[in-house]
Amino acid sequence: MMPTTCSSAAAPKSLPRTDHPKPMPEIRLTPVTDTAPAAWLHTSLMDWERVAKDFPAYARILHPVTEIRTGDPVPWASVTRAFGPAHPDRMDVIIELAESDVWDQPEQGSLEQPHLNALLDILARHTTTPEHCYLGTWEGWQWYNPSKRRSGPVRALNPQDIPQEIRDQASFELPADRRYVLLRGPIRDAAHIGGHVTPRTLIMRSPNLLWPADHTWFVYTEIDDYETYISGSEQLIDELAASPLLEVEKIGTDHPDA
After folding, report:
1. Are residues 158 and 238 in the same domain?
2. Which helix (H) or strand (E) covers residue 114, if one does?
3. Are 59 and 251 in contact (CB under 8 A)?
4. Quick one: average pLDDT of 202-225?
5. CA distance linking residue 57 with residue 229, whole number of Å
6. Using one digit for the tens of pLDDT, what is the confidence trace for 97-128?
7. Best label site of 74, 164, 185, 194, fewest CB within 10 Å?
8. pTM of full prediction above 0.85
9. 69 and 56 belong to one structural domain
10. Where do the DSSP E strands lie in the chain?
11. What is the CA radius of gyration of the chain?
């Protein structure tokens, strides 16, 4: 017996589609033209220091090496073991990675997006002011976006979209002659700083400086470094060290940059 088919009259009515993309929430980072909230850094940071004084604990996050073929992060222990005792210093290994056709060097001066997101999630649990944070982004990053194009559903604040007069007012300098643009906003938006280096290539950067209004922690990624430094409570540092994604080294409080 042949199967029967429903006539078009009996066909069920099509339901309205419900898979329309939701509008992406607005980025709430704004420039701070009164840079007084950054003044404490002048006494808390000395020349070339990466951590702020008078915090109970310190750590650094190692920026990940990635496998070229897959883009997956590679544990630093595996990388240093592969290079052997001839390259005991991490910087020596990073230099050698420039010639590798297997692994990519870690990102310099910026933490990769998945690792930045993991860091921000943990930091948010260790402040009473997650909606009120300050960010410093280095003025020297080159953002180029003449056509104003965006690559897909990516939210990003391009610092060069801020009018020059306002950027000048929001600019402040730290030791080592670095100048930064001071921004304010919720911690989750710290993952949305970026710009097009070409009309088709969007580059995201982690903030170089980040701290909450209650000063419970401080994050610093120097533009020449392959690590991100955190000053905070022992509980914060312990939670960072327990993260399955982040590679964290606890560092001493006597000479924390050593």
Report:
1. yes
2. helix 113-124
3. yes
4. 94
5. 11
6. 988 999 999 999 999 999 999 999 999 999 99
7. 164
8. no
9. no
10. 30-31, 57-62, 65-67, 73-74, 103-104, 133-138, 171-174, 178-185, 193-198, 201-205, 209-212, 218-220, 227-232, 248-251
11. 23
